[in-house]
Specification:
globular; 9 helices; 2 domains; OB fold (Dihydrolipoamide Acetyltransferase, E2P); six-stranded mixed sheet; single chain
Length: about 350
């Protein structure tokens, strides 16, 4: 199926790309290189500039400064139809008066491909996304997930060098969103196509990305693998935006061989860390890396709030260091009640001293 669609992955390069809307700088000198065949997610809050970056790659927004390359070609001033990219929109943008097949075939017909080529390519694309045999249906007769698959087939059938996703799953319910993100990732890997994916959903970004680009106020806050950004965020904004986080006062006692010796409450930890000067620090402590016990050693606290979620329990515990959020997946002693006195043990793999700036 891959050979039939003829997908050719391309590198995408942004060189100091800027976008201004009047006096407002929406994107501020963003430089980024996306490797061929990789899936890179632009992640950030609403209004941070991530969709504007995507639209500049697509040619749907003009560039105020800088350059955009697809492969070796400078496409900065080329129209969208000359860039060999396709975009999947949040709304799917299917033509309601056309059948599923004709929606997928539409772009090929605009290019005046032969009827035999149109039929084979469209049927191959529908089969690739699990919609074989459904070409005669109307879009409004399909579920949200099926409409999403049709939109994906319509993008793939054009044999793009780069596939762009603008919040494509935000209209789906939580279960379907999870399934569809897995299908998109598997298909992207199978085809080896370059993909740029925009979302504000941290779980979505962590689940599908080779690399994540965190955007804040039009600038890149950090670039890294999902694991790197989650475990070693470069600043507090990234730490807060990716996953739940506790920020607690601690003391860094010494650095040795890429590890920091940390005193956190009554507990001493040896955690992986870049170089820091000894002294007071703020540490990131992930909620799932804190053990809560009714007795034993650790930071003393009192449970203020309990939320039972089936596979886990969330606690808010008041301590001398401030409130601490804990996600307990083990629940060995059952769910502890609000008001209970507890001890907290911090696990080294979930504790990370944040840079001071």
């Amino acid at each position: 199926m891959t050979a039939d669609l003829g997908v050719q992955a391309a590198r995408v390069t942004l060189e100091r790309v800027t976008k201004r809307f009047g006096q407002t700088v929406a994107v501020d000198e963003v430089s980024l290189e996306i490797e061929p065949g990789s899936l890179v997610t632009l992640l950030g809050p609403s209004g941070c500039g991530k969709t504007t970056i995507l639209r500049m790659v697509a040619g749907l927004e003009t560039v105020s400064g800088g350059r955009v390359f697809i492969g070796d070609a400078d496409v900065t001033h080329l129209p969208p139809n000359a860039r060999d990219v396709t975009m999947m929109f949040q709304s799917y943008a299917l033509f309601p008066h056309l059948s599923v097949f004709e929606n997928v075939a539409y772009g090929l017909r605009v290019l005046r491909r032969s009827e035999a080529d149109v039929r084979k390519s469209a049927e191959d694309a529908l089969a690739l996304v699990g919609m074989a045999g459904m070409g005669e249906r109307a879009p409004n007769a399909l579920s949200g997930g099926q409409q999403q698959r049709v939109a994906l087939a319509r993008s793939l059938v054009m044999q793009p060098k780069v596939l762009l996703f603008d919040e494509p799953l935000s209209n789906l319910d939580a279960k379907l969103r999870k399934r569809m993100r897995e299908e998109i990732r598997l298909l992207q890997q199978r085809l080896g196509i370059t993909a740029i994916y925009v979302t504000h959903d941290q779980a979505e970004a962590l689940a599908i990305s080779d690399r994540i680009v965190v955007i804040n106020k039009g600038r890149i806050a950090q670039i890294g693998s999902p694991d790197e950004l989650y475990r070693r965020p470069g600043n507090r904004f990234v730490a807060e935006f990716i996953g739940e986080a506790n920020f607690l006062p601690a003391r860094l006692d010494a650095m040795e061989d890429g590890h920091a010796r940390i005193t956190l409450g009554p507990q001493r930890l040896n955690v992986a860390s870049p170089a820091h000067q000894p002294g007071p620090v703020t540490v990131l402590a992930r909620p799932e890396a804190i053990r809560v016990r009714a007795q034993g050693d650790g930071l003393a606290g009192t449970i203020q709030k309990v939320s039972y979620l089936g596979s886990s329990a969330d606690y808010t515990v008041e301590t001398e260091l401030g409130p601490v959020l804990i996600t307990d997946y083990e629940m060995h002693g059952g769910v502890l009640p609000a008001g209970a006195a507890v001890k907290l043990e911090f696990l080294a793999h979930g504790v990370y001293p944040l840079p001071s700036a």
